[in-house]
User: Fold this.
Amino acid sequence: MSNLTDVKNMSNAQKLRTFPGNRIVWHAVIVGVVWLLLLLLNNNIDPLYSSYLALVAMYATAMFGMTILVGFSGQVSLGNGALMAVGGYVFALTSMNWQTVPIFGWEWNAVWSMVFAGLGGILIGGIVGGLAARLKGPYLAGLTLGLAVGVPAITNRFPELLGGENGLMLTVPYPAGGYAASEIAGGAESGAETSDPNSDAGSDAGAAAGEDQYAELDLSEFDQGVDASTDPNATPATEDLLTEGDLLTLDDFSNGGDLGLESADPAVEPSVDPSVDAGLEPGQDPSGITDSFDTGFIIERWQASMAIAVACLVAFAALNLIRGRQGRVWKAVRDDPIAAAVVGISPSGSKVSAFVVSSLFAALAGAVFAQILSFVGPGAFSLGLSLSLLVGIVLGGRSSLLGAILGALIIVWLPELVDGLAGDRGWPDQITNNAPNLLYGLLVVAVVLAAPGGITGTVRSWIDKSRGKSRSPLS
Amino acid sequence: MTNFIDFLLGGFSNGAVIALMALALVMVWRSTRMVNFAQVGQAMFTTYIALTVQQSTGNWLLALAVAMGAGLILGIVVFFLVIRPVKNSDTTGAIIATFGVLIALQAGAGMVWGGDPEGFIPPVSNAGLEFAGRIWPVSLYDILVWVVTAALVIGLTLLFTKTSLGLSMRASAFNPEVARLSGVRVNRMLITGWAIAGATGAVGGVLIAPVSTISPNSFDILLVFAFTAAVIGGLDSLVGAVTFGIGTGLVISLVSGYTDASNAPVVALVLLALNLLLKPDGVFSHHGSRSV
Assistant:
């Protein structure tokens, strides 16, 4: 659409899709709305379901990377579980050491640990991707299979540093500001945040007001809470809370809807319309802001909101990548590397970039996983994890992000479904424990044979067929 | 120096098993140009069958024969149900499908036999032999492993070089189109390749089971070793698979002996990465370099 008259003739929707700037705004709106809906959901369901939500968001984060790598770039990798291990271990190591010794006077911050985890993923992904770009098909799958088996084994090599077979327990840093927000500050904050992203006033006031309040669950809180803890008055309180937070989990289950709803952080998500936030504020339950702090903080909700935040940011990045120029480059190389090279695309560069992006996402997912489990260990990042990522995107649909989300849902939900069925029918453990994997294996084979596009690809080809268009289920 | 010799001798029987698995991978590659990542899953499954036979009859030879037969059948079943229906163009799908088979086989074995590792009683002593005043890291069982492996490799070599079936198989691996024009039933050769691969893998599984234990996932690491050996050997060379299978076993034994057994997968990974970097087509490959 180089011609100006072409542009004039386009509908608004076409313009949205054509101009990168508009497209980014559009994607931001989509992701922002989904984010808000998910937070709303998270705050209104049983905490047990919140923990599932956290897992789904974590798997989805890793599977977005798989979508790009397997679906768009056509490289079958089993190494993403290992790359999650990289992220998880970097997160654990930086947070464990940094929490005790501030670096250059900076207090530790979970977001920084996540950044380091991401950088670790990029580094390792770059190395593996550089190797991978020279390989194709089964060679790459075999190499990454070696990665999936070998990387967890490395933890045994350095038992002092990485904890060997037992892994590392980590103190999950709950947002200090979450405990500290007072009734007034809590109310003021949600207003203040939408108007001024840089304002720390809310959480500062909250930190001063004391620890016996409820939790604000938001990534921005996460930031500000730790900022607040640099305040000498607040620091001791933070340490108290870390231990008390663990005890809290036991008696929180009955207090379902007590949490305040936070808007998406405007600094991260510029497109979120403030009016949308305002509209949702009535959803905040004022009665939930109670005096006693043990009615407030629900660890599953906090974990879910953290995992959702990461998943949404990753989804936003992934959307922009795959629906922009880079996505077309990846597809071109996947479909015909020689033709792509002829038009000036570097096939190996494209493959490496897909690998790096997917390992960044995997590492972030690993960091989230470490926080959900409060633990990293070789058992958590086994070959089975890598395989389940592959299973998820194949079943959901390997060439769309929605497919990755569906895949994450299947991976988390199917074992629960089987558990429920087994409980009703009194199946022995031996059957119950293996039934999900048997189903995954058979379903993967069936999907590859009968519906290579997975759920999303198949549905899309039905829609296309009904409209009289034809398209490959994998495009 | 004695350590070195001990580690080297100790690595031979592992190497023999890796060579058998690598052989199975290579035979599948030669017949259908794909890596069967479910190969060790098939071997694991047939080893469990052999375990059941041995536990009920106490006859190791019968168990081995049953495992070979089961491997043969399983290879054919996987070929017909999964590999043949996958469209040739969808290489990504084919690779994923073999992993699907692997997952299903492991879960199936877990359902039938449980997830706990089980021991496989060796037919002859597994203790180190005493000779010339010291105990060597070689047992009667190790010698049995060598003999069985050697017999199988020699048998396969004879099959491929001296029989018309072997000639047809080599022809259809080398150039399916020309072979078909010359009257070779290429499809039948592909099935035969998968069947022989399944039986070879089954023998490898039965041989390794008494040395390690058997559980649904215990052969995963063997897949990495066998793939490493097969790729270094060029993926379509039987000689390469055997040579580098034994070589991989020796290297792993040395590394495990001098440092720690947990290093073995990392070493395999490094070997594989180096090979793919320096000589991606393998040492014994007949083919020229790939395009792009």
Q: What stands out?
A: Chain B has one domain: 2-120+140-278.
